[in-house]
Amino acid sequence: MKKTTPPLGWLRTFECAGRHLSFTLAADELRMTQSAVSQQIRSLEARLDCLLFVRKHRSIVLTDEGRRLLPDVSQAINQLYTATAKLDQVHSADLLNVATSVSVAQWYLVPLLSRFIEQHPHVKVRLMTTVWPDEISHANADVLIRFGSKDDNPYVEKQLGKNRLVLVASPQFIKSRRIRQLNAKNIVRYPLIQAVGTSDTWANCARQFGFDEELPVTINVDSHGLAVDFAQAGSGIALTSQLIAQPALTAGKLKLIHSKTIRAVDGYFISIKPGSNNSTARAFVGWLLQQVEL
User: Fold this and answer.
1) Which of 81-85, 144-148, 266-270 has the lowest mean pLDDT?
2) Secondary structure class of 16 (helix, strand, coil)
3) What percent of the chain has pLDDT over 90?
4) Is residue 50 included in any domain, yes or no?
5) Whole-model pTM?
6) CATH number of the domain within which 12 lies
7) CA distances (Å), origin 251, targets 222, 245, 247
8) Which domain holds residue 244?
9) Which of 1, 101, 264, 265 has the fewest CB atoms within 10 Å, measured from its CB?
10) CA distance 243 to 69
11) CATH no. for residue 143?
12) Is residue 226 part of a domain?
């Protein structure tokens, strides 16, 4: 049977506690609670079937097994830090790390980002896209752009755009279907597209546009970006975010098929991650907020 190594987190906690000879100081360095450090050490000792520390009233000391293990673990961790430092440019002064969804990156930032780079030629931008909204807050980034409701994030953030929903279709779709005016009677003839995983569905929004709530949806996708993709491909009428659709509307690849826009429940929010010391982050956030108002 193939043997597995203990979790790296346990080994890192052991190395830190062994270096300080203190669970309390290890907890401070690792930003953990003392009880969590103690629990990880106990788990590692159980995994290795030996004691690594002798617990005294106000101190700890390494056992013989702990003294033998510590140098090898310390060396391995230092090698990992050295290896990743060669590739990790997160703290580079001229590198701006932005974490966001694929929809924002592809459909909003791609058409705009070259303008920011032209104004800040020394800056390099690294875009990190995530699949699930809760991954945004854990990303190692300077600027976070997330999708969700306003109260989902503890960081100080600003709303990106006016947070409106629009109905869009491609010019070719409108022409081929000879759509002059969308109304409650003729909308049932056309394929409808919506993003799931949000409160802003056709069922919840149809009445505000003047349609029946029981409209059948043909295509369900997992993001507003994909809804825009399908609409642009001529697959139907998409209920989607105005922010994500705007570049395609500006380029004439999509057209508004209904004059009304409605307030969305979920939207896009931008913030600078606490602890980021990147001097360009604030300039980028301010610039992007200006773009959505143009």
Assistant:
1) 81-85
2) helix
3) 60
4) yes
5) 0.65
6) 1.10.10.10
7) 24, 10, 6
8) 164-263
9) 1
10) 55
11) 3.40.190.10
12) yes
